[in-house]
Design brief:
Elements lengths: L8 H21 L13 E2 L21 H11 L16 H4 L5 H6 L3 H8 L9 H29 L1 E4 L20 H12 L5 E5 L6 H6 L6 E8 L7 H4 L4 E5 L5 H18 L4 E5 L17 H17 L4 E4 L7 H15 L14
Parallel strand pairs: 1-2, 2-7, 3-4, 3-6, 4-5, 6-7
Helix pairs in contact: 2-12, 6-7, 10-11, 11-12
């Protein structure tokens, strides 16, 4: 009998088992699952989220100071004290290897690769050490935020990472301003550390969430509801095959039609899957006027959308993790802050009761 080749079923199964064992070991050894005091609210944020380097970030329509401005609005309106937020740890290389390959992570040491992912051509001319500090470090902080936020969601019933939602990045490929697959990472951590076996991704960013769709293409533990503008980036037809329930919108879709389609989609999801965790990718690039989303949803429509998703989870007592994802207008930060305030007023989340204003 000839020796077993690496491509044989037996060798493949053995290799898969070894890879799973290594993944689990990395997850169990990670320091990202912080113990958070009860005095903290499950809003995860670090000033390190914000990206600023020589003004080059302004060449991309993404508001790279959005995350900090959301918190500023919440503080100003009396809904938040900054020392009540949860500051995450930066995802290490070992943490990132839970999903990403060494080859992919090594590719980020090329400034050209980072320039391609961030869609900023001048970035290719900068030393990679600067990009690691000014671009990739903020992204890794947000990855750490998404991972610990999933833990908080399980403990508190809900959590919001004021960042994250890099849904165009998969294990082997970044793109669309997404360098790390934080959605895939936080779910794999939840499988191992939270003993969760069923996760629903509700992706309502204006763009198709092709990264997590590729990553969970053959994983029946994950149900994906994705409602997006089919006429814009990324046009990933392979990834579409792995969406459990897709709602393809056309450019110019207005608020009422958008919310009606969401109601229908949530009803389908409710009848087809019973998750133990909901990961909600709440992009605000659906807003009317967003140059990349090309939809026409009003600010009030976004608040209603978020309320509907939180009610979907609350009515079934399912922990929910919200990520802020895309949004390419300065007004996005204000809309997200208003939506968080609305969730508090409607008692769908609980912020510091000594601070929250009466509705």
């Amino acid at each position: 009998m000839p020796p077993t080749s690496l491509s044989s079923p037996g060798a493949s199964a053995s290799s898969s088992t070894a890879a799973e064992s290594l993944r689990n070991s990395r997850i169990l050894a990670s320091k990202l699952y912080l113990d958070v005091p009860a005095s903290k609210v499950p809003l995860v944020y670090s000033s390190s989220y914000n990206i600023a380097f020589f003004g080059i970030e302004k060449l991309h329509p993404f508001d790279s100071s959005k995350w900090g401005r959301i918190c500023q609005f919440l503080v100003k309106e009396g809904y938040l004290v900054m020392n009540k937020t949860v500051e995450p740890l930066e995802a290490s290389e070992e943490d990132l290897l839970v999903v990403h390959s060494e080859t992919y992570l090594s590719s980020l040491k090329s400034s050209l690769t980072v320039a391609t992912i961030t869609e900023l051509a001048p970035v290719a001319m900068l030393p990679n050490c600067i990009l690691q500090k000014k671009v990739l470090h903020p992204f890794r902080m947000q990855v750490g935020g998404s991972i610990v936020a999933a833990k908080l969601a399980k403990e508190r019933g809900w959590a919001i990472n004021i960042g994250g939602g890099f849904h165009h990045c998969s294990a082997e490929k970044g793109g669309g301003f997404c360098a790390y697959a934080d959605i895939s990472l936080c779910i794999h951590f939840a499988f191992v550390r939270l003993n969760i076996t069923r996760v629903m991704i509700i992706d309502l960013d204006a763009h198709q969430g092709n990264g997590h769709e590729i990553d969970f293409s053959n994983d029946r533990r994950v149900y994906i509801l994705d409602m997006y503008n089919a006429g814009i980036y990324p046009f990933d037809f392979e990834a579409k095959r792995y969406i459990d329930h897709k709602v393809e919108l056309v450019s110019g879709t207005k608020t009422k039609e958008y919310l009606d389609k969401l109601d229908e989609a949530l009803e389908v999801a409710r009848n087809n899957f019973n998750p133990e965790l909901v990961v909600y990718n709440a992009g605000t690039d659906v807003l009317d006027g967003d140059p990349l989303g090309r939809l026409k949803v009003s600010p009030d429509g976004v608040m209603t959308r978020d309320e509907k998703v939180f009610r979907f989870a609350r009515e079934r007592n399912i922990p929910l993790l919200m990520l802020t994802s895309g949004g390419y207008m300065k007004s996005s930060a204000r809309v997200i802050a208003d939506s968080i305030e609305n969730l508090a007023k409607k008692n769908l989340i609980t912020l510091d009761q000594h601070l929250v204003k009466n509705s």
